[in-house]
Design a protein that fits this description.
Elements lengths: L5 H7 L2 H13 L2 H7 L4 H15 L4 E4 L2 E4 L1 H29 L3 E7 L1 H18 L3 E7 L2 H9 L5 E5 L9 E15 L10 E2 L1 H4 L5 E2 L5 H12 L8 E2 L3 H9 L5 E4 L5 H4 L3 E5 L5 E9 L6 H12 L13
Parallel strand pairs: 3-4, 3-5, 7-11, 8-9
Antiparallel strand pairs: 1-2, 5-12, 6-10, 6-11, 6-12
Length: 317
């Protein structure tokens, strides 16, 4: 066998042979791979043998029932898969020059981020880029990040929370949101401009779904104070929680930009005096992944959007 070199690969190995090799690795049998690639089994065998000669090592271990990649074959398969991924990215990006920005983007995010920001902003993006199909996947904050890491989504828009999976993302800042406390009108705390979380823990607390980042942070903060957060009521939405506050049944915490002017007239809204009350919302893509023109356009539009009036970002904080 010869010695593998870049020169030999580029002059003597064609893309079809590399694709055939990947199919053999997937099928674990040259005959089945030949059928998939519409080539005679004898011709497929000859191509694989020629590839091994150029590589200078055995790429497949022959067994009675088929073949499995050798250690060298596993390495080659990994690099060839990356090669074809890059070729597909190149094809897509070049095609966008002739066809205009088009494509499909899967965005994983939380329900509260959709309500606060994305419904309006993706609507505007779709008007600006009618050839781009945007799919929204709503999930819990931690699952949103995992969806991009696993390749199930192209973009994650999530509340930054120091999750281990975040290290696998390239991120940009999107929004800063502030958590506020809502208490009934006429409550002993209602006339204060702000409130400490420890004071809220003395009141009947109204919780929203337990696996949200907000409730996770609240539970961590209570434990840091040596207490347990045990909600008197647990409801499924911020609107339901506000209605219980209006009825005088307790207090709650919500993102400030989700409290409309109309709703804020029916409850007392206090600033929450805790560092975790200011939270960053980030846009994340899989680290090192080449972004399509459509994805770049979406991220550019989202990050250039002005913050909603009354939000921390709007005030330059």
């Amino acid at each position: 066998m010869g010695t593998l070199s870049v020169h030999a690969l580029t002059r003597r190995v064609d893309l079809f042979t590399l694709r055939l090799f990947l199919t053999v690795v997937d099928e674990r049998q040259i005959r089945r791979a030949a059928i998939r690639e519409n080539i005679a089994a004898s011709a497929a065998t000859k191509r694989i043998q020629d590839l091994e000669e150029i590589a200078g090592v055995q790429l497949l271990d022959r067994q009675p029932g088929g073949v499995v990649p050798s250690a060298a074959g596993e390495v080659l398969a990994r690099h060839v898969r990356l090669l074809f991924e890059n070729l597909e990215d190149m094809r897509r990006e070049i095609g966008e020059f002739s066809d205009g920005v088009r494509g499909h983007i899967t965005v994983a995010t939380t329900g509260s981020i959709i309500i606060q920001y994305l419904a309006r902003e993706i609507g505007e993006f779709s008007r600006n880029f009618p050839l781009v199909d945007v799919e929204l996947k709503q999930d819990a904050n931690a699952n949103v990040v995992r969806a991009v890491v696993s390749g199930e989504a192209d973009v994650a828009i999530y509340v930054a929370s120091k999750q281990p999976d975040e290290d696998a993302l390239d991120t940009v800042a999107y929004r800063t949101e502030r958590l506020v406390a809502l208490v009934p009108l006429g409550h002993a705390l209602a006339d204060q401009p702000d409130v400490a979380f420890a004071d809220l823990l003395r009141e009947p607390f109204i919780g929203i779904p337990p696996y949200t980042t907000l409730m996770t942070d609240a539970h961590h903060a209570a434990r840091a104070l040596g207490q347990a957060l045990e909600p008197r009521f647990s409801v499924g939405s911020v609107e339901a929680a506000r209605s219980l506050v209006e009825a005088g049944l307790g207090v709650t915490i919500q993102p400030e930009c989700m409290v409309s002017l109309e709703a804020s007239a029916r409850v007392a809204m206090l600033q929450l005096k805790e560092p975790w009350a200011l939270r960053g919302v980030h846009i994340g893509t899989r680290r090192g992944r080449t972004l399509t023109a459509a994805t770049r356009a979406l991220i550019r539009q989202l990050t250039e959007q002005p913050a909603p009036a009354g939000s921390p970002s709007d005030h330059g904080k």
